[in-house]
Amino acid sequence: MSTLAALLPAVPALGWAVHAWWLHSRLTTARRDPLTGLWTREAFTRRARRLLRDPRAVVVLADVDHFKQINDTHGHAAGDLLLATVAARLAHGTHGGVVGRLGGDEFAAVVIDRDGTAAERLDVLARVLARPVDTAPQVHTTVSLGWVRAADYRGEDLSALLRRADEAMYAAKRSGRSGPRRARLGRLLGSVAGRRPGRRGAA
């Protein structure tokens, strides 16, 4: 039997393997935000729910402050650059967790706090996020952070924990102080999304 004849049965299998790789690549790309490279809301949710099985999980919500002002002053290209920079810094600062862009200038992360230093690490992250964009020093603003330990609210799902982080994040934004705000213990007040100022949608 010739070498060519021996290889012929493998050709269909190779074709299917290439097709499967291409399909997986397309699906993965579809689950990534095209501007920031972070997971989209749906993809983030699936991965975040898996991490929440760990009682050490921490849920973080981040919102870029004065984003409309950045767009109005420097243009939408500068706004996109700022979002991409925030996304990269969030991904680096929450290494080992999962980070997603929920839409517009809002991001979320779930990380495992293995050594109990989440508060200190988020303080550092807030300062890093406030640094000017490396390639455009005139483009900079703060980022409000709210966070919650899943262990403080056993039995609550990702949606409820995100609402708690949302409340904490907007409390930090209203206070005007820099630095992340931890969700307080007690009753969930409900989402404050309806009171948010308008902002540009997802890119």
From TrEMBL:
The lineage of its organism: Bacteria, Bacillati, Actinomycetota, Actinomycetes, Kitasatosporales. InterPro entries: Diguanylate_Cyclase, GGDEF_dom, Nucleotide_cyclase, Rev_trsase/Diguanyl_cyclase. GO terms for molecular function: diguanylate cyclase activity. CDD domains: GGDEF (cd01949). This is GGDEF domain-containing protein. SUPFAM superfamilies: Nucleotide cyclase. Residues 55-185 form the GGDEF domain. One of its GO terms (cellular component) is plasma membrane. SMART domains: GGDEF (SM00267). It comes from the Bacteria. One of its GO terms (biological process) is cell adhesion involved in single-species biofilm formation.
